Amino acid sequence: MDIEKRLRRVRGWLWVVVVGLFLSGVTAFPLEIEVRWLLRALDPLSGQLPALVGWIERVHTGLVETGDRYPFMRYGTDWLAFAHLVLAVAFWGPLRDPVRNVWVVQVGMIACAGIVPLALICGPVRDIPWFWTLVDLSFAVGAFPPLWIAYRHIRAIEAAAPRPADSSTTSAP
C-alpha cells in the first residue's frame, strides 16, 4: 500500500477518535438535561429493564440534588468536558504529521488501557452497577481499535519513508 493511501487511513481513523472525544466533551456539560431526556426515553422499558431505569433515575436524582445544593460540584464535570475537548485538540498534531506525532497516538492507546483498571477498581468503590461499568469500559473498546489501526499504518509509513543519509558516514568532497 502506498504512503498516501496509508496517510488517508491514518487520518480517517484519527478523525473517528477526535469526533468521539469532541462528542464526549460537549455532552458532559449539560448532564442533568441529557439524563432527564434519557430517563424519559427509557420510561417505556422500565418493566423490561428495571435495573437500568432505576440506575438512571438514581443518577438523575443525584445530579439534580447535588446541583441544587452544591452547584459548584458541576464544575467538576465542566473540567471533565474540557479535558475531552483538549484531548481532541491534541490529535491535531498526528492529523498533520502522523510520523512525528506518533507519541500522541501511543498516549491515547495507553489511556484506553488505563480505563480498564480505573473502571474495574473505582466502579465498585463508587457504587457503580456492573452493567454501567461495562458502559465505561466501552470507551476503551471503542477508542483503542482505531488508534491501533492508525498506529500500525504510521509505523508502516515510517518504515517505508526514505531515511536521510547519516552525515557521519558520508565523505566530504
Features of the shown structure:
173 residues; mainly alpha; 7 helices; 77% helix
Task: Draw up the topology in text.
Layout (H helix, E strand, L loop, with lengths): L2 H24 L4 H12 L7 H20 L4 H17 L1 H5 L5 H24 L4 H31 L13
Helix pairs in contact: 1-4, 1-7, 2-3, 6-7
What does this structure look like?
The protein has helices at residues 3-26, 31-42, 50-69, 74-90, 92-96, 102-125, 130-160. Helices cover 77% and strands 0% of the residues. The chain is built from 7 helices and no strands. It has one domain. By secondary structure, the chain is mostly helical.
Number of strands: 0
Instruction: Name the structural class.
Output: mainly alpha
The proportion of residues in beta strands is: under 5%
How many strands, which pairing sense, and closed or not: the largest β-sheet?
Answer: none
Oligomer: single chain
Count of distinct structural domains:
1
Overall geometry? elongated
Mean pLDDT: 93
Order of helix and strand elements from N to C terminus: HHHHHHH
